[in-house]
Amino acid sequence: MATKKNYKTIVLPEKYTPKKTEPYMCPEQLAYFYQILTAQKQELVHTSDSVLNSVRLADKSASDGVGDDSDNATFEQEITMNLRMSQRDNNLLKKIDAALARIEDGTYGYSVVSGEEIGLRRMLARPLATMTVEEQEEYEQRK
Questions:
Q1: Which alpha helices (H) appear in 1-143, and where do they start and end?
Q2: Which terminus of the chain has a smaller tally of CB atoms within 10 A, N or C?
Q3: What is the pLDDT of residues 121-133, one digit of tens each?
């Protein structure tokens, strides 16, 4: 019985890029997308930690009564901007986690609407895609 390659342990060549000549979402392609998504997730988690630390510092400065009204307004603006960035990052993290779950369950690269292949070009351009181009356009027109 042949053993199925585990995409999590595949070591890809440095300049590897998925090709149309390979079977769609073969272990190497899954490894490629897994590595990209995992790296994006790690970067976001690191950035989120930095953003939250900035919010804490700005909030502490504002609550300590450091500065005048203008400084406090700037602190408030910083806090609001950082919280928006944090919310955006959290939404992106959820999408990345969902994509990683789809890799795990074998549905990554296939439309959540129709089950059709999304296509390698689209997945390379947008690794978080969940629909074909046509389905996405139709969805956006209905919105």
A1: 27-63, 69-105, 120-125, 133-142
A2: N
A3: 999 999 999 999 9
CA angle in degrees (0–180, nearest 5) for 106-107-113: 165
pLDDT for 38: 97
pLDDT tens string 20-31: 999 999 999 999
Fold of the 25-108 domain: Four Helix Bundle (Hemerythrin (Met), subunit A) (1.20.120)
List beta partners, residue 117.
Answer: 110
Question: Alpha-carbon distance 4 to 1, whole Å?
Answer: 9
Query: In the numeric block, which tokens belong to residue 128?
Result: 């978080």
Give the pLDDT of residue 136. 96
Tokens of 57: 């510092």
The residue ranges of every structural domain in the chain are 25-108, 109-143
Residue 134 has pLDDT above 50, yes or no: yes
